[in-house]
Amino acid sequence: MLDKLPVGTLILASIESTSQTLLTIGIGYLSARSGFLNDKSQKGLQKLTINVLTPALLFANVGAQIDLQKLITLWAVPAFYVGYICIGFIIALMAGKICKFDWAACKFVAAGVIFQNTTSLPIALIQSMASTRAIALLMREDDTPSAATSRGISFILIASLLSNLFRYSVGTWLFSDSDRKRTNESDSEDGELLDTTPLLNATPRRRKIAGMAVSGWHRAREIFNPPLLAAIVALIVGITPPLKHLFFSQDGVFYSSLTATIRQLGQACIPMVMITLGAELYTLPRDTSSSTKEMVTAIILLKMLVMPILGGAAVLSLRQWVTDDPMMLFVLILLAASPTAINLMTISQMTRRYESETATVLFYSYLVAAFTLTIAVSAILLIFQYKL
């Protein structure tokens, strides 16, 4: 049986793991402030991360970790994520009504609550924790720190698949002013796109159908982005033994060449994302109006206080029906405690709604996360040591 670690050691491990992540974000912030990372270079890094590094991370980790049996046992991750979204949406709407927000503001608060950072921050925290003694609490009997870390990353990446799907569908609706208004605007925009096509002189009905097709194509491209496609390919490879052997067995044809290259690129993903995140937190415009302060306060209180407590309580109370893997339990609680997704800014820019408000939410969420994540990780580790 694992010897119990002193409380001070667990708290120190939590501080060490979160500080590594937050210091990397701080380097990005200072780099932007010093002019090393301007708007153009930040956009270049974002494109590199989204189109190359993140897909590499997804393929390397999901493909190596997953198989058909594990895929079946991972049902708890999507179940928890969908439940989290539903509960968060209901609580956000209730809080919005209590604060007397209008419907559009209520939906914005809901978006800030239900969409959390499901990739960069949780993965960075787990990778940092692997270098501390606390990783022993998240390992199974036959585990190594490296195996436990890789397994935790694979759990997080499964959640990120769902996050992409919900963010670019539900998230777009939550940011829209109204369903009717947004539909009319979309039709108008699609019409503008078609003014440069041979359908210029087509009948209104044909133009509308073509406009819907164009809109659907762009929406599909937003949802099925490179990270999601890489994860789907990784799932196919992982659950297909001959393909998995080719890529992930040491005697496989691609193991020492293509797979090794993909892994190297994936290892660069998280530091790059953290640095870019820090730079964005410096450059994003912020809104200091009273209405924005009210919405930001509501989002931070719900996202960083209420949801972690509810999520943690749900996972721990249902653990006997969910899993006996401490790493999976840790990941599920960590996802509930993560701050608002930085990618929410993309939805804001797409819909041209709440851009400065979203930037304000992100800035203060990650400032608060410096304290709340340390507390959350310490609490989780203490519970794991003395209760599980």
UniProtKB/TrEMBL annotation:
<protein>
    <recommendedName>
        <fullName>Auxin efflux carrier</fullName>
    </recommendedName>
</protein>
<keyword id="KW-1133">Transmembrane helix</keyword>
<feature type="transmembrane region" description="Helical">
    <location>
        <begin position="228"/>
        <end position="245"/>
    </location>
</feature>
<feature type="transmembrane region" description="Helical">
    <location>
        <begin position="48"/>
        <end position="66"/>
    </location>
</feature>
<dbReference type="GO" id="GO:0016020">
    <property type="term" value="C:membrane"/>
</dbReference>
<feature type="transmembrane region" description="Helical">
    <location>
        <begin position="108"/>
        <end position="132"/>
    </location>
</feature>
<feature type="transmembrane region" description="Helical">
    <location>
        <begin position="328"/>
        <end position="347"/>
    </location>
</feature>
<dbReference type="GO" id="GO:0055085">
    <property type="term" value="P:transmembrane transport"/>
</dbReference>
<feature type="transmembrane region" description="Helical">
    <location>
        <begin position="265"/>
        <end position="284"/>
    </location>
</feature>
<feature type="transmembrane region" description="Helical">
    <location>
        <begin position="296"/>
        <end position="316"/>
    </location>
</feature>
<feature type="transmembrane region" description="Helical">
    <location>
        <begin position="72"/>
        <end position="96"/>
    </location>
</feature>
<dbReference type="InterPro" id="IPR004776">
    <property type="entry name" value="Mem_transp_PIN-like"/>
</dbReference>
<keyword id="KW-0812">Transmembrane</keyword>
<feature type="transmembrane region" description="Helical">
    <location>
        <begin position="20"/>
        <end position="36"/>
    </location>
</feature>
<dbReference type="Pfam" id="PF03547">
    <property type="entry name" value="Mem_trans"/>
</dbReference>
<dbReference type="GO" id="GO:0005783">
    <property type="term" value="C:endoplasmic reticulum"/>
</dbReference>
<keyword id="KW-0472">Membrane</keyword>
<feature type="transmembrane region" description="Helical">
    <location>
        <begin position="152"/>
        <end position="175"/>
    </location>
</feature>
<feature type="transmembrane region" description="Helical">
    <location>
        <begin position="359"/>
        <end position="384"/>
    </location>
</feature>
